[in-house]
Amino acid sequence: MNDQQDQVKGLKGKTALVTGGTKGIGKAITTRLLAAGATVIVTARNEPDEQHPPYHFIAADLSQPDEVAKLAAQISNDFGGVDILINNMGANTFPGGGFTTLTDEHWYKALEINLLSSVRLDRALLPAMLEKKSGVIIHISSTSGQFPIWESTMAYSAAKSALNSYSKSLADEAGPQGVRVITVSPGLNKTEAMSAFLTELAKQAGITLEEMTQKLFDRVGGVPLGRMAEPEETAELVYFLVSPKASYISGANYFIDGGNFPVVK
Question: Which superkingdom, per the lineage (predicted)?
């Protein structure tokens, strides 16, 4: 099979669910899986911008347990389950400034969005994968899970670190039963969410967006490749990991950060 055929047919016959799949990295992953021939279901709180999207859309707020249950039931009834689950939902919408700015509500919300949404969805959809003895689960984490920045990502980093640990544990449990579980930790990606995050930080600091962007680059120790990632670059890694070519990969955490991470991982 040549590269062009692989792009079209690599996932033909597979059904994938992408959470938070209407924007940013999630949208890029959705587009890549569609190009590879998969049937793709996308879920998010808000309707997609496209009038007639090429994927199946189901609205759901995955921070709510009952919404997760409804989503899983609909997928089971309409599609018979999924072969690929991309837990991409996540957000860092919490106040900066360190521990004094974060209330219990902020901490609970950070865990609901960045950890428990994935835990609940895995719990709902994984059993059917185990019955078939096949499937792939990808947890989209963040380099923040191992490189917290106290002034801007404290709650988010803690939640992503917990996701990393949970993902590894689940991989160890599900692997012997034929289901691969992998973590992908993007660094700085050029998305709408990143732009909004930096804009808010710049506003709080009273500096320009360009100055705040450079400040963030400096704060994380610089990015050797000198730029943020395009979401499509992260999506390409995810595609490889869910494809048959990655059939011996499970339990790993892949960092895609332009060389930013300052230690040997």
Answer: Bacteria
Within 10 angstroms of residue 93's Cβ, the number of other Cβ atoms is 14
Among 25-29, 105-109, 213-217, which is the least confidently predicted range? Answer: 213-217
> What is the pTM (predicted TM-score) of this model?
0.90
**Is 55 noted as a catalytic residue in this protein?**
no
Residues 213 and 104 placed together within one structural domain of the fold: no
Are residue 197 and residue 168 in the same domain, yes or no?
A: no
Same domain, 238 and 222: no
Q: Pick the closest to residue 111 from 155, 60, 153 (CA basis).
A: 155
Q: Which member of 55, 156, 239, 254 is catalytic?
A: 156
Reduced to 3 states (helix: H, G, I; strand: E, B; else coil), residue 152 is coil
Under a CB-based contact definition with an 8 Å cutoff, are residues 61 and 45 in contact?
Answer: yes
Q: Please say if the pLDDT value at position 2 is more than 70.
A: no
Q: How many CB atoms lie within 10 A of CB 236?
A: 15
- For 101-135, letters b (16+ CB in 10 Å) and e give ebeeebbebbbbbbbbbbbbbbebbbebbeeeeeb
Strand-strand pairing, 179-186 and 253-256: parallel
Containing domain of residue 155, as a range? 3-189+230-256
Statement to judge: residues 48 and 170 lie in one domain: yes
Q: Indicate whether 85 and 72 sit together in one domain.
A: yes
